[in-house]
Structures are given as structure tokens and as C-alpha cells.
Amino acid sequence: MIVKDLVETRELLTEEMSERAFVVYERFENVDCHCEGDKFEEIECDPEEQIQILVGSPVSTASLKSVKTYLVGDTFSTIDEIIADIRLNHKDLFKTDNSLLPLG
After folding, report:
1. Suppose 27 and one of 8, 13, 44, 57 were both cysteines; which one would form an S-S bond, judging by CB atoms 3.0 to 4.6 Å apart?
2. Which helix (H) or strand (E) holds 79?
3. pTM for this structure?
């Protein structure tokens, strides 16, 4: 059985996202655990990093829905590459700059 310990979490792009959208970085330490009779063995596995985009309901902020999960090292090798993809493909979740909107 793989046991995942969340060892670090932080919110990214805090100032840029709309009020209902969150980009969260998470780092897990993974251990493969085996139990055989009265013997217990733990084997350390590679750590795992992921970035999730979570969006709250416009009606209620009581729950969040995961829109996308990126695994660091999968399609994108760095956090910066993932952030660039989020900026490119999820523009609708960012704050809008009202100063650029036409008046009237």
C-alpha cells in the first residue's frame, strides 16, 4: 500500500486569480508499506509534486471543484512551465483588468 504524506502546500498566483479560483502546489513524500504477519516494512518512494486548479461555486464557497491537476515531471518538467500553461489555457479564472474596459 502506498502511503502519501503531504509535507508542503502553498497557494500560487494568489494576487492574479479571481476570488473563486485557487492554484495550489502540493508536495508528497511517498512510502510503500508492506505488512506480512507481525512484520512491517516501509520502502521510501520518489516524492511527488502536483499543482491543482480549484474553483468554488459562484453560489457557495463551501466547496471547491478540481478543474485540473498537473503532476510535476509528467507533461511539464517544472512548476514554471505549469504556471505558463495555466496562464495560457485558463485565462477565464484570472482577475480581469477593469482599467482596460471601454467606458459607457
Report:
1. 8
2. helix 79-89
3. 0.79
